[in-house]
Each structure stands twice: as structure tokens, then as C-alpha cells.
Amino acid sequence: MTTPADVAEFITFWRDSTLKERNGAQGHFIALCGLLGIKFPTVADPHDDWLKALARPPGMVGNGCGPVE
Prior knowledge:
single chain, about 70 residues, two-stranded antiparallel sheet, 2 strands, about 5% strand, flat
């Protein structure tokens, strides 16, 4: 169970981080999952299907070859 102290520690850690966005994004996301008590992406989606769908450019559907009508 997440406590107020856990939340405060998370905020302090990431507020004081000097990592650049690209370097810190994955760690931040994984730490946030842990804080919220939800499955990490690699556990929830071991074949990366969901994340691949998120990475598609806007306006693409199906196999990614056609625009959204």
C-alpha cells in the first residue's frame, strides 16, 4: 500500500533529478507504476503489443498503412 511518505519520497526524488527527459522517462514511468501498485509494462504486455499501438503515428489504423477516415 502506498503511503503519503512514499508519495513524498517519489516527488522529492524526481523533482530533484537532473536526468534529461529521454534518460529519465522510462525510470520515472516504472517508479510511478510501482508507486501506484500497477503492473509494469513488461508484465502487463510481455509482447509489446499495446506499446506498439501507442507508438504508431496519429491517423494510422490497422496495419499502419492507411489514414483514419
